[in-house]
Write a structure and sequence with these properties.
Elements: E1 4-11, H1 21-37, E2 42-44, H2 62-67, E3 69-70, H3 79-88, E4 91-101, E5 106-115, E6 121-126, H4 146-149, E7 159-162, E8 165-171, H5 178-186, E9 191-196, H6 211-229, E10 232-237, E11 240-242, E12 245-247, E13 252-254, E14 260-263, E15 270-277, H7 282-286, H8 291-294
Parallel strand pairs: 1-2, 2-4, 3-4, 8-9, 9-10
Antiparallel strand pairs: 1-15, 4-5, 5-6, 7-8, 10-13, 11-12, 13-14
Bound molecules: 4-methylsulfanyl-2-ureido-butyric acid.
Length: 307
Amino acid sequence: MTRIVRVAAAQLGPIARLENREQVVTRLIALLRQAAADGCDLVVYPEMALTTFFPHWEVTDPVELESYYEKAMPEGAVTRLFEEAARLKIGFSLGYAELAGTADTPRHFNSSVLVGKDGRVIGKYRKIHLPGYAEIHPEHPFQNLEKMYFEVGDLGFPVFDAFGGTLGMCICNDRRWPETYRLLALQGAELITLGYNTPLHNPGQDTGQSPEQRRFHNHLCMQAGAYQNSSWVVGVAKAGIEEGCEMMAGTCIVAPTGEIVAETKTLGDELAVADCDLDACIPGKRGEFDLALNRRPEHYGLLVEAS
Ligand code: CDT
């Protein structure tokens, strides 16, 4: 049996601080059209794909800061992306900064949505593992203020029946934590979408790592997550030099065997495409990584998980 989902990992080059939603959405639609012309079912965009990665600096102007968040999905210029996807009958996952809550108690999340071929939102995820700091570090060449601009996601790691299988989402730093993949796999995830914004240098934690080591760890965690959970992982970067910050590329599609089957070559807007057979998850999920049969959480002592 085969259950093929043809997936395009839609890497983005840098998004400038002054680039507005119309301009960015035009770039996203260009990639969407390429993917549709290539017969794709699903396009995976990076983390915070609608704006520059503003946690890299302190935004002192409240109007500018507010402009980076979406109050509804879709709203404004982003509606065009949803309409075009529905017209082309192609689904997508999209990372964005979300403003939720009320005017009195606003809540901010680093979120992603999964959208079906009919242009409707299937599900949402809010990033749980927020890296960096809640306070400014003037000694750093750029900031990583995700803990200042976002609160920890409150939706857990949900999975969704979609595209003929079970799909889950995670965002950027989540990929470094084995719990992410495992919690999704325990619910049957067969394909995990994963957008990221990762600098080639980390001015805070992990100093001393070379760019080569950081590139290696990027693929290492996604390949291990795919293999140990027998799931497809679609990792999609924001690449190139964005407002002076050198971003890692490395966009790739990882098979349930842990092998990379497609990857981008440039630092710009580019697709990596693969036919992801969801049935290729079955040998691992029914074999070595049959979680119900072979996992032993009751023997993990203090590390016993709730589920
Ligand atoms: N966006 C995000 O989660 N980035 C972190 C790196 C932060 S280092 C400055 C990541 O794990 O890729």
